Amino acid sequence: MVIATKSRFPEAVHTVLPWLKTIEHSDYIVHRLSEAALCAPFPEPSLALLDAIIDEASWPARKLGSCLDAIEGAQPALATDQRFVRLRNYLRRRGQV
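Below the sequence we write its predicted structure tokens.
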């Protein structure tokens, strides 16, 4: 639902973030986020959403790496954010980087 808000994406993420939980199969949501091309224009809210939903016990979503690349490209300082580092390390452990 927050992905459909387009230009209001940051506000939508901020509103729902306290209620978000990790999900076992995040592929669909990450795919939709990537297709909507929201990671580059809204890197911090995108990172917050990914951090909130990604369950490290499951296999990584196929588009997670490209979402992280877009976030880092748009706001390089986020590459040192603990959420970003956690997700990038998760991909590395799963052989996705």
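The first helix runs from residue 9 to 16.
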